[in-house]
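README: folding subset

This subset contains proteins for which both the sequence and a predicted structure token string are available. Records are stored as plain text. Below is the entry for Acetylornithine aminotransferase (421 residues), shown exactly as it appears on disk.
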Amino acid sequence: MSHTESVGRTDFDRLMIPCYAPDGFIPVRGEGSRVWDQHGRELIDFAGGIAVNALGHAHPSLVRALVEQAGKLWHVSNLYTNEPALRLASKLVAATFAERVFFANSGAEANEAAFKLARRHGLETAGAHKHEIVAALDSFHGRTLFTVSVAGQPKYSAGFGPPIGGIRHVRFNDIGALEAAVSANTCAIVLEPVLGESGVLPAERAYLERARELCDEHGALLVFDEVQTGMGRVGELFAYQRYGVTPDVLTSAKALGGGFPIAAMLTRADLAGHLGVGSHGSTYGGNPLACAVAEAVLDIIATPAVLAGVRERHERFSTELRRIGAQTGLFEQVRGLGLLLGGVLGEAWKGRARDVMRTCEEEGLMVLQAGPDVIRLAPSLVIDAADIDEGMRRLERAARRLRDEAGRACDPDTVLITGVA
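--- output ---
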């Protein structure tokens, strides 16, 4: 098959391992917050590639960085370092608490490195007993065996043999449960500042502060998985800065490359030494192409104008989602931080997030789900007002269709609409 030969959605079922169930249309071009499929149909993108396309599609600065680097150097392996990796590492260190950086290709790989570092640190500082990891139920940290074991979701770890041991799971935002789980055997507490995949549920500040205290008391590492919340998504460069709680280890991916695969684990110098030469690695980690693009992403996002714009857009999105919820009953609650938002479905649509997604797509709008009861939005951080307004019109049409198809009208005075600033 040549690159000019026609392919379609049925070819996926014929050729691909069926671990995905992609939608019926195939996007072929994107610009800003708009996407076009094979038939020229235009859609507004409120999904952002699952919080990846932080600057939209085909941002000129990212395209320029990629093309320029493509004409210089693509890959040299970790036998050598390269200039884009060193520049990006320098800027990440300057912008965060961190002093050392490890580059990988995905959030799962960054988290794998973080969990290995936590266990190596525990064993080398206290002994073999200090290997337990405390994590949140219904969290998500990736798809490797280690990361699905740390995440408290059996649906991802079941069916692959015994999960990795030494992991304790507690309810998110439950300080008492966290205190009961942490002991002298704990090497790390691992948390997402916003529980993303399982409902877009922000952590309470007191919960993260107590996690920090417990780690200090027990000589454990506090690991923040900021794969989804990092790189401006919540209105600060990283969520830990918004909460005022500094971790020992932070992982970043998704928006770090703005669509080009790259991830990073950030930590302090004293901790980095526990991963000495040969203890960990990645063939493509720190790839010059990826790092050149990520540097361009960071240069744009880490500016007061873009971060303030995220906070302003949060208000615009939240207001419209609450309005649609009040008028149609589709949403009973709106929550989230920055441009990571969750619309909790009303009683009539509980368990039907997939149906809502499909109806939105039929109206020309791309959205996500976060579990069966929540619609998740993670649009471009620089999406313009016209695209927000048009996307909301399409979302409202979808909501009214769903209401009409259900044969019930919702009294807006009976719907509770709340939110998280």
